[in-house]
Amino acid sequence: MTIAVSLLPDQQLAVLNAAYRRAVARKRLRLLASLAVFVAALIVASIGAEVNLRTFFTYLGNFVSYFDRILTLDSGQRVWTDFREWFWGLHNWLKLLGETLLISYVGTLIGAVLAFVLNFFAAENTAPSSWLRFTVRRLLEFARTVPGIVFALIFVMAFGLGPVAGVLAIAIHSTGALGKQFSEIVENADMKPVEGIRSTGASWISCMRFAILPQVSASYVSYALLRFEINVREASVMGFVGAGGIGQEFIVAIRKFYYSDVSAILVTIIITVFLIDITTGWVRARLFGREART
Amino acid sequence: MGARPAVRQGGADLSKPQDVNTAELRARYPDVFDRPASSRLATPAMLAAALAIFVFGLVDLDFSPSRFIAGLSQLGWISMMMMPPDPGSSLPLYLQALGETLSIALLGTTLAALLALPVSLLAARNIVPHIVRFPVRRFLDSIRGVDTLIWALVWINVVGLGPFAGVLAIAVSDFGAFGKLFSEAIEGADQKQVEGIRASGGSALHEIRFGLMPQVLPVIAGQVLYFIESNTRSATIIGIVGAGGIGLQLAEQIRVLEWQKVSFLILMILVAVAAIDFISGKLRFAIIGKRAVA
Fold it and tell me: Which residues are in the ABC transmembrane type-1 domain (chain A) (predicted)?
């Protein structure tokens, strides 16, 4: 068996080799340069953030022992040896957790409805006028960029302590986030049905209702459910600033060093988040399953 | 599909519905006319249930109209007092706090990415068997189920108040998210390269290093940049619980009702997030675009 490998003359080969080496060297140099910039940025940042590796390693033991402490009951036993003692406040916590879920549900629903109303004005292909589109987009951007808990802090001042502030904060943040996602779905929608309906002399509202909405409603619900999932997590900390839910109880437990309570509330929150994730995942799957069948 | 309905044939008068042989149509399309009650009522029932929970939520969370209106007028006052945004004499302090926030975001995200890379290999379907994958995934899920603010509180207990706690909080909570995202990127990678390396006698480590990593790294870099951006948002708020950065200033100014300073701080956050958005968008394009050319 003969193998044909074309051997280039040395002269030609040397030129090609040099070009290859240069290209590789240039690429390496670029990589090294960007790495150097990145590392420099990290060093500047670690000075800015007062990173102190010695503190870190001295206190790293604290991190482990913190978990050791929150997993120990007052009696000195491990928490899982006595569930009744560990979850002594379960009744109260479940009530607060219910409040947290309700806050995120009501907040998400208000946000979804507002986003639903606004998104047709924000999408490129359905906005009636460009200045309206610009305004709505900036509005949504503002609602999305300011963190929910900052809104919560301000609303606590305006509406007083309690879940109302939490609901409104979540509603505004969801409006911003969902408004953007919804309008992106609309921008991907097929515009032929709109032309068809417009040709019958229908108004803008009818176009949206009969041409766009049937295409996008399932994705809307899916995104709203995802947002609900995220908001449950967000609502769990709304209590930190006095805006209702389980966060209030949690921050008290942490600040007052009720160690076993910390782990118990943490476990309840994590399990709740799991359950919500699984449930909404199931609902989403069913929703799209049915949509695919019809 | 069967033949066309009778109504279309022979120039039948469409305005007279009695021309239509409904009995025949019913027989032909039973699932259109006689959908079971369960499927016809499902959507209205779901909507009614959603509305019922919403109303229950409004009542349970104390959404009384009078309180709502009073709060709104209060909010109107607050926003009037916010105008015009004014840092007073604390502009240098705020700029420093903003720098601290950006440092926290950068360091936290980098740390999370470095930690998550090896762990994500253990969570990827095409690398490890199910028995390893399952516990690793649940572990990542539980880390993700806990909000960044809660992690910040835990780290404050370990390393004390200040931005370092913020870095660690962001690092841990992103570790959960990155682990999941990276492992999905790894699962999506093409197996042909890996097989090629195995065929040429490479070890498992060679397969990962030369088969997987070149495919996965650009995807990962894009995600890391995206997270630096979204972490700037998270880093602005962890100061509210005392983990450094601009959130600390924000929470303080809200508590002492210095509304002009509050609006200035919010403005600063908006500008910073927009700037990071812009830069990381460019970088992301540079990384992914270069790959597409090569």
Answer: 97-280
Cβ atoms B167, B193 nearer than 8 A: no
Q: Out of B58, B107, B149, whose CB is closest to A51?
A: B107
Torsion angles phi and psi, residue A243, rounded to 5: -105, 35
Chain B neighbours among A 98-127 (CB < 8 Å)?
Answer: 99, 102-103, 105-106, 109
Residues B80, B209 contacting (CB under 8 angstroms): no
Give the mutation candidate from B137, B158, B260, B270 for the A interface (greatest A CB count, under 10 A).
B158
Q: Give the ipTM.
A: 0.75
In angstroms, the CA B164 to CA B103 distance is: 10
Handedness of CA B219, B274, A181, B251 (dihedral sign): positive
How do residues B23-59 score in pLDDT, each as one tens digit? 787 777 777 777 677 777 777 888 888 888 888 888 8
**Chain A residue at shortest CA distance from B164:** A51
Residue-wise pLDDT for A110-153, tens only, equals 999 999 988 888 887 777 788 888 889 888 988 888 888 888 88
Q: Which of B98, B168, B240, B282 is the best mutation test for A, with the most CBs of A within 10 A?
A: B240
Could you say which DSSP state residue B20 is in? S
Residues of A in contact with B102 (CB under 8 A): 45, 48
Is A31 an interface residue toward B (CB < 8 Å)? no
Cβ neighbours of B284 (radius 10 Å): 18
The structure tokens listed for B273 are: 């997030």
Which residues of A, range 186-245, sit inside 8 Å of B by Cβ?
Answer: 233-234, 236-237, 240-241, 244
Q: What is the pLDDT of residues B49-101, one digit of tens each?
A: 888 888 888 888 878 888 888 888 888 888 887 788 777 777 888 888 888 88
CA pair distance B74, A155, nearest whole angstrom: 9
With H, G, I as helix, E, B as strand and everything else as coil, classify residue A286. helix
* A274·B145 Cβ contact <8 A: yes
Spatial contact of A247 and A238, defined as CB atoms under 8 Å apart: yes
CB pair distance less than 8 Å for B103 and A44: yes
Retrieve residue A47's tokens: 């000075």
Report the candidate in A246, A110, A128, A123 with the shortest Cα–Cα distance to residue A182.
A123
Sign of CA dihedral B164, B166, B172, B177: negative
Enter the tokens of residue A268: 């309840």
Give the pLDDT confidence of A2-11 residue by residue, as tens digits: 677 777 788 8
The answer to whether the CB of B169 falls within 8 A of the CB of B148 is yes
Residues of B in Cβ contact (< 8 Å) with A106:
54, 57-58, 61
Phi and psi (nearest 5°) for B4? -65, 150
Instruction: Count other C-beta atoms under 10 Å from residue A210's C-beta.
Output: 15
CATH number of this structure's domain A87-293: 1.10.3720.10
For residue B67, which residues of chain A lie inside 8 Å, CB to CB? 159-160, 164
Taking the CA of residue B163 and the nearest CA in chain A, the distance in Å comes to 5
**Structural domain boundaries in chain A:** 2-51, 87-293
- Tell me which DSSP letter residue A210 carries: I
